[in-house]
Amino acid sequence: MTDTRVYRPVDEHEGMRTAEDILSAISASQFAREGSVAYLVEKPEPGVHRVAERVTVQAGLGFNNDHARKSFWKGKIIPGREVTAASIEALRAMGASPDLPGDNLITRGIDLSALGAGDVLLIAEVILRRSPATHKPCALFRTRLGDAAFRAAANGQRGALFVVEQGGEIQVGDPIRVVRKQGVARQPEAEHA
């Protein structure tokens, strides 16, 4: 369990010195329409992140063991952030451990930044719909990961926010399938062998 309330920032993260270095590393990653669950992170209280092997997800709420105020910012609820997600590829480029930023779902092989509002992730019986809200980094993200990671995340590389349309159980290693919103023309996603 990581208690990020006492985290001290590191100036350099695994050799990535600039936001451009981080963005370049992320763009070199191999993404597809199918991937898997790399990590699951529960937030039982503000500033505390716990890696889990399996979680229960509730429609309209998010991870069962998350604290009740996780969707609040400056005293107001932020709709569309029942589940926060980041890719392991982006976190590795930023030099961050999977539990440090506080995202619930850490994916492998899925370019979350390429998802549009309404796109869906299917994980076991769970259905997560991409929220129209942007997954922006905050000052705490900068403190935890450093300025270069903050700038890369502000450039759209943090991940994505989701609402839970259908709950169920998710476990590490579960396959993830992306389903694009119907009727919306998008740039084709690069498929890598």
Write the layout of secondary structure elements.
Layout: E1 2-3, H1 19-27, E2 34-45, E3 48-52, E4 54-58, E5 62-63, E6 72-73, E7 76-77, E8 83-87, H2 88-94, E9 105-108, E10 120-123, E11 126-130, H3 139-145, H4 147-157, E12 160-166, E13 168-171, E14 175-179
Parallel strand pairs: 8-9
Antiparallel strand pairs: 1-3, 2-3, 2-9, 2-14, 4-5, 4-13, 6-7, 8-12, 10-11, 10-14, 11-12
Key terms for this structure?
33% strand, 18% helix, 193 residues, disordered C terminus, M1 Pyruvate Kinase, Domain 3, globular, 3-stranded antiparallel beta sheet, 14 strands, alpha+beta
Summarize the structure.
This protein has four helices and 14 strands. The chain is an alpha+beta fold. The protein has one domain: M1 Pyruvate Kinase, Domain 3, CATH 2.40.33.
Kindly describe this structure:
This protein is of the alpha+beta class and 193 residues long. The protein has one domain (16-179): PK beta-barrel domain-like (M1 Pyruvate Kinase, Domain 3). It has helices at residues 19-27, 88-94, 139-145, 147-157; strands at 2-3, 34-45, 48-52, 54-58, 62-63, 72-73, 76-77, 83-87, 105-108, 120-123, 126-130, 160-166, 168-171, 175-179. Strand 6 and strand 7 form a beta hairpin. Helix 1 packs antiparallel against helix 2. The longest helix has 11 residues, at 147-157. It is globular and about 40 Å long.
